[in-house]
């Protein structure tokens, strides 16, 4: 007899498999083609709060021009701009159909191997952090600082929230400094992190 827990488990596996098969995004080379996986806002700049050029529907064909962090600069019939890389599937729709096989084989493969594709390769999407060049070219943004400061809560608001949630104040002591700071133990000045030294 199949219980509710088993059904939930299989549904999660199916959703995981679908997300893996849809999440294949590789580093684009020169002018690759792709399509949108979901309806997505085409942005003027690679920022979430940048002005929107237009909204692209699902399966809009794209030409990928370049990649920057978690964003791809793309060109479509509706215009040129930036999309989050998780909204883009590289390759043509026909090539994707050829590679993916039928849905049943994908599910069987997922259930037996934990992988959704027939190639046995697990796909992962990652975004690297700031590089040395990014830090070197960084410029101050006083408007962003003002916006960030506007999110600060007043002391009385935080006290009221803590009280309503029945939170209690706790004092946490600093860790004591390590006895020895030798290079062989890997402990150095980072051992005093957070102590104001």
Please give a handful of descriptors for the protein shown.
about 200 residues; SH3 type barrels; 5-stranded antiparallel sheet; two-stranded antiparallel sheet; 6 helices; extended; disordered C terminus
Description of the structure:
The protein is 31% helix and 19% strand. The protein is α+β, with helices and mostly antiparallel strands. It has a domain at 4-113: SH3 Domains (SH3 type barrels, Roll). The strands form two sheets. It has a five-stranded antiparallel sheet with strand order 6-5-4-1-7, with no helix packed on it. The N and C termini lie far apart (63 Å).
Summary of the model, kept short:
The chain has 197 residues and is of the alpha+beta class. The protein contains six helices and seven strands. The strands form two sheets. It has a five-stranded antiparallel sheet with strand order 6-5-4-1-7, with no helix packed on it. The chain has a two-stranded antiparallel sheet with strand order 2-3.
